[in-house]
Amino acid sequence: MNITRSIRATCVFALLAISAAAFAQFSISVSFAPPELPVYEQPLLPGEGYIWTPGYWAYAGDDDGYYWVPGTWVMAPEPGLLWTPAYWGWSGNGYAFHQGYWGEQVGFYGGVSYGYGYYGDGYQGGRWQNGQFYYNRSVNNVNVTNIHNVYNTTIINTTTTINRVSYNGGNGGISARPTHQQESIEHERHIPPVAAQTQHEQAARTNPEQRASVNHGTPIVAATPKPGAFSDNAVVHAKATGTPYVAPVRAAVQPTNTPGRPENNAARTDRTTPNNPPENRAAIARPNHPEPNKPEPNQPSTVQPERQPETNRTPAAQPNNRPEPNREPSQRPFTPPSERSQPERAAPPSEPRAQQQPEHQQQTPRPEEKKQEEKPKQNEKPQ
């Protein structure tokens, strides 16, 4: 039984060492550096056994950019373990993220001065003694009424207020390099962040107010009393200092000559208009003036409706030229001009003429009647 337990313990420690080594290596590389560290106060220590883990900038991808993971108090996974903070470091092609881890010694974290015991080299915020963690009152916010395992060692540090750079190497980065002891610590047994820390980071990632593009380097939740306690009354807000952070413009975010852009679509519609034949536009705009090169079969659709009314207008003009049989001017073509100019006087002379016509017809027979009378005379025999 003892042999079996020892084998299991060895396997567990081996898996922890492998996972810790994987966490120690960077897995994200960004072409531009993270913002400066925000300035905030440390929340009150919630109880014994909690160790301070400083906040840091993480990266959520090109769409969301950097976001702030608040600093918080975390219960150590095992007695005797200390926390090595995460940091960003220049890798030659970009800024690589180095995940934090738990270990018996504090390793290299880029020389970044996170404050509250993490001033770029080691940790001066507390130490393990006889299975209990003792807190340095000079750098931690501890209520001595409730917490008795404390000590007081003054730490002179000015880097927190002077230099708030959050990355190592590159343009404007910290020039610190790991020592031989720190390099050896990298090969020791490490434990990755506990589940509470992972959930804490995911909560910060899903909160839009934690993004640097939104808070401009001054997050609303800069620190929490416990992991994931973003709505706690003891939440600490960052102080506005210096120039607000502005996310750099990346070429990948603003592509040029993209086929889906409205500008290119508008240009395509302009190019498609010349495909309409000019003959069709001319036939519609000027139906009475067809072009000489246009074929005649296409003209009747637009020209014939205009010519048809011309044939309908000719009968309307004919009644004006035809004489009406009942009108008096046709019976009196030789009326004197004086009578034409006075139509009211022309009525009386017309009555006697109408009466004289029968008498005239009786006295003077028509030529046809004379011929009829003469015919029997010609047929008579001579006496």
Write the layout of secondary structure elements.
Layout: H1 2-24, E1 29-30, E2 50-53, E3 56-59, E4 66-69, E5 71-75, E6 82-84, E7 87-90, E8 95-98, E9 101-103, E10 113-115, E11 118-119, E12 126-129, E13 132-136, E14 150-151, H2 159-162, E15 167-168, H3 180-185, H4 195-205, H5 212-215, E16 223-224, H6 262-272, H7 278-285, H8 300-317, H9 328-331, H10 337-341, H11 347-363, H12 367-379
Parallel strand pairs: 5-16, 7-15, 13-14
Antiparallel strand pairs: 1-8, 2-5, 3-4, 6-9, 7-8, 10-11, 12-13
Structure notes:
A four-stranded mixed sheet has the order 1-8-7-15, with no helix packed on it. It has a three-stranded mixed sheet with strand order 2-5-16, with no helix packed on it. It has a three-stranded mixed sheet with strand order 12-13-14, with no helix packed on it. The protein has twelve helices and 16 strands. It has a domain of 223 residues. A hairpin with a 4-residue loop joins strand 7 and strand 8. The chain starts with a helix and ends with a helix. The protein is globular and about 50 Å long. It is of the alpha+beta class and 383 residues long.
State the major sheet: 4 strands, mixed
> How does the helix and strand content classify structurally?
alpha+beta
Give the beta-strand count: 16
> What is the percent of helical residues?
25-40%
Strand content: 5-15%
Query: Which sequence of SSEs, written as H and E, runs from N to C?
Result: HEEEEEEEEEEEEEEHEHHHEHHHHHHH
**CA distance, first residue to last residue:** 187 Å
Mean pLDDT: 73
